[in-house]
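ASSEMBLY PREDICTION REQUEST
Request ID: AP-0331
Submitted by: J.K., bench scientist
Number of chains: three
Total residues: 999
Priority: normal
Notes: Please return the full assembly, not individual chains.
Input sequences:
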Amino acid sequence: MKSQRFYKVWMSPALFLAPALLLIAVFFFIPVLASFLMSFTDFDIYSLADSSNARFVGLENYKNLLSDPLFWKAMRNTLYFVFVGVPLSLLVSLGTALLLNSKLIRFMSLFRLAYFLPVVTTLVAVAVVWRYIYHPSFGLVNYLLGLLGMSTVDWLGNPKWAMLALIIMAVWKNFGYNMIIFIAGLQNIPPELYESARIDGAGKWQELIHITIPMLMPTTVFVSIITIIGYFQLFAEPYVMTQGGPMNATLSIVLLMYQEGFRWWRMGYSAALAFVLFLILFMATLVQLRLQKHYSGV
Amino acid sequence: MRRLNSGNLLAKLVLTGVLTLMSISCSQSGGEKTITLDFWAFGAEGDKVREFVTEFEAENPGVHVIAQNIPWTAAHEKLLTAYAGNSLPDICQLGNTWIPEFVVLNALEDLDQRLDSSINISPDSYFSGIWETNRIEENLYGIPWYVDTRVLFYRRDLLAKIGWERPPETWDEMLEISRLLIKGGHSKYGIILPLNEWSVPIVLGIQQGSEILREQASFGAFSGAEFLRGLEIYDQFFQEGLAPKGMTEVNNVYQGFQEAIFAMYISGPWNIGEMTRRLPAEMQDDWDTAPLPALRAEEYPGLSLAGGSSLVIFRSSKHKDIAWDWIEYLSRPDVQSEFYRQTGDLPGRLESWTSMALSGKRPTAAFFRQLESVKKTPQVPEWEQIAMKMQQYLEYVVFGQWTAKEAMDLLDKDVNKILEKRRWLLSRDK
Amino acid sequence: MNVNKILIHILAVAIALITLIPFVWMVSASFMPQGGANQFPPRFIPESFSLEHYLRLFKSMNIARNFLNSLILSVSITGLSLLVNSMAGFAFAKFHFPGKESLFKLLLAAMIIPAQVTMLPLFLMMNQMGLINSYLGVIIPGMASIFGIFLIRQYINSLPDSLIEAARLDGATDFQIYWRIVLPLAKPILVTLGLFTFMGTWNDFMWPLIIMTRENMYTLPVAMANLSGEHAQDTELMMAGAVLTVLPVIVVFMALQKFYIEGIMLGSVKE
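STATUS: Completed
Returned structure:
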């Protein structure tokens, strides 16, 4: 029976797939395409009032973007956030993972819970709390600095420190997530490796350098790429804590995109920004695939 | 082992979701008897205006006013988003510098006819400089709700300590007072000029006689010699350390004012209320307000900006008549007076100024005097964006990254880019 | 040896203090009377205990409505997305049809497109559909998730085919197989994914910020951001708002910790 065979092969999976695929096509792929087309127009607030006010401008938005000091400022800020924040975050994650994986530790699950708590909490709420923690005169951070005899800092008000303040908060908020992945990675290292190293008389430090870190390499690559991708999308922290200031020191790519798009409704320009972001993430992913192949090949 | 049926669990979850959705959409469509008027207001006004809703609703049975409060920092984007999303309220408070933008969008109802037939509202009961900001070309789009302009708030007691019994009348005097205050250890800084406010440099620019935008407002005029002269004075406060650069250093300005972190503050009328509320009672005689300084003593008081908020009706509203009634209600002299008592926002209506004797006594007298010499900002839809841009470049100047000239050249380049569309539209529509 | 053990525990406690102190301060400041949190040195124990900020949030700021909005959105998206994603995950795992692999790869490749790319056109689309300021405007785009499909497919893949074959021989339809056999077996992954979705929706900020322009439709994070723009000077009030925002996710997480942590590991399994 031909029709029944057709039904078996196509209809059934199609019915199961239809809701998800339809939703993804309509509410994801179409907007992506529309956004791409929009990035070649000067669609803006005037066009919102009357669409004949929109012009096709070719690559103009991209050109303007590349010559806009604000874009480069946002790019530098975002890169700073990513390339200082991610290594710092990974170091803390790895450190705490080693700590919790230690045979000496007791109440491990309690500590794990404590370290993980910031991860699940609402970013906006946490950002509001940290705004006060960074308060120049009443904040906890400056209080501690004072106790240590150091001079206090206007964390969010000084362009030199504001981004670092956001980084510290982001590390505090996120390190628990990668810590969990690292713990899993550590537990997957065969114990025989350590045993044979111990027979060879290796110390703790040498074990770390010669066994733990190399064996964790695939995990580290994976974790660093997802963290980089996440950190590139910095938005809520500056939106709530600094509005991108002072002196645009915390203006991120996504915040700039939001401001251009939803504050000024320069939608063509904003769409071009979105695609630049996409391009960067795309390249980051390519690097991941390359590295993963490399390490799984070893 | 008992096998849990997660299919059932899932079904229950989905069902709950669908049911809640249905119940909510039902509750929204139910009870269509009353007319609901959506009203947006910003900042403290949004909180306070709720108290007036009850009286209005009592006078207009069947009308229900929903007053929504939006923070000033998000007001502009929320409004534009609502415009783009066809979800504007019926009536709204609109900063009068934003009116041109919404006129271009064709979003505002022309109020001329309603004004003609109104007994309560007429232009001569308003400050003319403020009324004018609501007029674009020939048409009227808003009724001033409360008025706003920048004046000087200062600590009388601290100035007295250095022998100044009156407020500064020129910017030079202001610089001098700041120096003396710091030198005498009476305050940490002379003045606070928050970097997230663009009004002071604009004021200095127009006092120098500078245009802000030129050629039918289609190019920036920030890099012109006049504007730069104004900016120099502004920058001097920072370079001499007379004003703090860090913005969060005085996160709470009231506390900073009270604790003599600074002695002068250029700000708007809402701070009359805040100062009265937040400063301790025994300090209430120690502060006062004064009109802005001028370049030369004979020009005192110096020009300030025509600000304030108007009430506008959106064309998309289905209840324009009721919306107008709400405007009429809020514009009644007695309501205006009461609103002033509640918020400290200066009434738009002159009757309220006289009936409450605001024009003659401190701290409002300074505003009354200032409101007679105000100028409006350029009436182009891009203004808010341009002002924000200027604010950004200001910081670069203050922190010494660029000279005033360099920064303003770059600013004009940006501004001209922003105005490119406007130039294109102007030339096309010619 | 004992010294090491003590040192390690001191370190562990110190880190725990760093992660927990902001929360402790948040809770304690939320109960302080007005102005109590703006003191130097910072206090951890309120001078006097005050509920005024919570009362103000509920009475004059209508935070209960924001709470309800967050709850409605999180629950309905969780339920609906589990259904939609598990159906697709099942199809990808246990059906054979031409083009399956390339379709799946296409979806995986699309995962690297950041959501921000879609937001402007999506907003205009939602506007055309009249879904601005509606629950559906958040729910519909949140229902299907490629990550969810992937996670479920991985799990169902590992279930033995023989179970399905046996049921099919007994005359079960595909839907019965999905509903009666696959879903019960996939319960752990459904709980995990449900937890992820619930928390992700609860904590989500950017899209609700864009699409909800009416105060009575704000979710808690949007209401919080709004509040912090408006009442930044009222530290204690902000902290009370933060406590209310954070509390539900912490409770849910505490209850289902195990599933969440397992989920992270599953998500990190490399293809």
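REVIEWER COMMENTS: The domain at 35-148+307-358 of chain B is CATH 3.40.190.10 (D-Maltodextrin-Binding Protein; domain 2).
SIGN-OFF: pending second reviewer
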